[in-house]
Give the backbone structure.
Amino acid sequence: MGIESTDCREGQQAGSGIRASIIPESDHPIRPGDLDREALKVLYRLRDAGFSGYLVGGGVRDLYLGKQPKDFDISTNARPGQLRRLFRNSRTIGRRFRLVQVFFRGNKIIEVSTLRSQSEYGRDDTKVLPANNTFGTLEEDAFRRDLTINSLFYEIGTNTIIDYVGGVTDLNDGIIRIVGDPEVRITRDPVRVLRALRHAARTGFTIDQESFRAIVTHRDKLNLCPSSRIRDEIIKDLVSGFSRPWAELCIKSRVFFTLFPFYDQPAGDENSLDELDAILTVVDKLQKNGKGGAMHLPDYMLMALLLYPWLQRELHLLQREVKGGGYRLLFNDIRQALDTSICGRLNIKRSGKEAMTTLFVNMPNIYRYHEQKNWPKWLKKKSYFKDCTMFCAIIAEARGGAAVNADLFSGPIHPDAVRCGSRNGGGGRGGRGGNPSFTEKEGGVFGLRSGSPMAG
């Protein structure tokens, strides 16, 4: 492969004068025509205005792997103010770091960020990160990112890939590797654990040994992160269509039991995890191949499906009698179980908790009628009927029943207001990328819970 430098992954830091590997057009599959038309417009306008512009991150990764990127994000040496003057159809967003969204017809948005410095290098490993990043170089921007395969830049003028961290080699070898020292990077932002597992699940790549050891060693540091941040990261994986391989990797690394300690069980008792595996298999099938394309189940239903095997084990839902006072007793048992296990732990909104409770408390009746294939008229009139039959059908297929009827997923599922949390996360960007997550401001830290020993 035509490259300029040697492997620069091991122990390297931004600002150490590393020469990038420049991968020429003949040695990579990306062509300008593969890029989104609006992304090309942004890149060409930056170039014509005298600025550098690069396709970055997941867009480069996906195009290299022959996939269609979900987003085409761009980095540049232009500052946010310069970008706003250059693109009148834009706005500036972000709290920790300002970036510019450029708007096009059809609600198309291209996000453009100024290259950032690797603010966590050159600082004491035990110190927290400042709230604001500073502008930096291409090299510094590469080293601030989480994974090597997400740290690549595509330059449209020369049709080359710029690689400071060995990301192209890892793409070719199918490796997920944390940039820099994984022990330090995870300690500084434990959510990197979840991002590494996510990309391993979605790509089918193998996590390199050093990164995996750091994940296992430092998995409990996830408990120091804000519950809402962890919740939103979990939801991203549940809606991805790769929830089963994600859960499998989480279980293998024991991260799953850090996130959901109530699932930890005596040796040899794996029935609930086996059932969860079957449920997530059905969920992924629906997410990828629902009626009319991908079917995105609502957050509260995905979270309920994740919890169902555990709740069935604890409360024997399908065997419960719900006539008379049995319904109220089951309702109270479910609410108590959710409150003590997950809702407070992940800061689930009240509306999400109520929606999950509705699914669980009606499961005994719904499942019995589902097996009989005979729905009483009074039940079909209930407001919760559609949601509960969908929930039941997924579990029934996972238990060896008939495949879910795609007609169940036509039309509205549930009001959008009922979510476990924010799909988009904080900062107006969905919490994507490797932004530092700590602050030295008084009154707590941005990325860790107030009072955490890691808060300095």
